[in-house]
Amino acid sequence: MVGLKSMQKVIVIGGGVVGISCALKLQDDGYDVTVLEPGQPGEGASWASCGSIAVSEVVPLSKPGTLRRAPGWMLDPAGPLTLRAGSALRVLPWFLRFAGNARPSRIEAISREISVLTRTALVDTQALLASLGLSGLLRHQPVIELYDSARDLEHERAFHDARRALGFELEEISGAQAAEMEPSIAADFARAVVLKDWRSVVDAKRFVAELHRVFVERGGQVRHISAQGFAREDQKVVAVQDDRGDTHVADQFVISAGAHSRRLAAELDCSIQMEGVIGYQTSFDDPGVKVEHGLIYAKGGFGITPYESGLAVAGSIEFAHLDAQPNWKRADILVQKAKRVLPGLKTEDGLRRFGRRPLTPDTKPIIDRIPGIENVMLATGHGQLGVTLAATTGRLISDMITGRPLPLDMAAYRVDRF
Ligand SMILES: Cc1cc2nc3c(=O)[nH]c(=O)nc-3n(C[C@H](O)[C@H](O)[C@H](O)COP(=O)(O)OP(=O)(O)OC[C@H]3O[C@@H](n4cnc5c(N)ncnc54)[C@H](O)[C@@H]3O)c2cc1C
Fold first, then answer.
1. FAD dependent oxidoreductase domain: which residues (predicted)?
2. Atom 44 (ligand 1): residue with closest C-alpha?
3. Which domains does the chain possess?
């Protein structure tokens, strides 16, 4: 069986955190794997992330508070969510589906379905890293979410209770206790929640780069080309066509090109509901403050992560066309707001990045075979949870390609659910 599989060739399209995690698991299962990645490892959405293994981040973004506040945020240039001029009409169908997921019954169902995946996310990530000799890429501290007032926390309480009911560990503490845990934060936060089962990676870009390095060391190939289309024979894809006009033959294919997966799936007559939602990160080599835990400023809608090379401030939700250029002002606004959390933060010489989260209207990823095609899998739509769910997705994709019995019902992550 292993001998037969070792002759099978898999092409993984996209070498972000999700694609490379699929590639590594498939490689481990005996396949001959090639990753097609036009850019540098991790420079898609992955490198702009907060790098958290955010296991209890299961309540969908369509929760009522987001929808209620969205119009006000969009009118405020410094608000956490914005829509680029010219994008409104295009985003409308997506947004209507998103709004349809704000009903309490949908929130509850989606939270449960995301939790089925995130429940094993930390163990899956730890197992993947241990198998690659990369356990040092994970920090051991939990993440602390900070609230200006008891009222702000009260608005979120039902969601925190829902997370607890699903088995996740959240501990409410006072602002003073939070300041004891993290002496660099402002002393006047009223409340905080310790997200006890979260962890963070030591550096979002190096995380992906190291996965690539080990993949190549173990015989995997990375081709720096962009997939453009597919050659088909009946119900199968036989090759990927690249941007240079060359074709790449394989037995199985995985589309994991982040926000660009939608266009590739459309080449196979598969329509995906997904937006590439821009977020920004600014990192500081010399932040002037010492921080041990990942921090989230609930009201500001951003996170602060201690990376090995310094500190990164990341967040913002911006709907824009896939070709849109970044609006760096939004990154700068986050940095200014970060001083509310860390008054001593030195904000000179920040390095700015942006990435497009591949976000579905129900916040759930798509982990499925393309309908009507036997040998093309989709591993995309991970939204704000790609780093968290990469290892879990890789395991499930490899299970599906290998034909192993699946440990869970995959109906909730199907591509035709919209
Ligand atoms: C500000 C911000 C904060 C975040 N914080 C977190 C967090 O704390 N925790 C968490 O879990 N997630 C977080 N995320 C989300 C996470 O970064 C994404 O979900 C994740 O990076 C998606 O990974 P991916 O591999 O699907 O896509 P990407 O990382 O975007 O990778 C896709 C890759 O496909 C390649 N590609 C594109 N088109 C083609 C093509 N035609 N052919 C071949 N390759 C192609 C691209 O070059 C790219 O490298 C955050 C995101 C942002 C923006």
1. 9-400
2. 14
3. 2-45+207-272+363-417 (3.50.50.60), 55-117+133-199+274-359 (3.30.9.10)
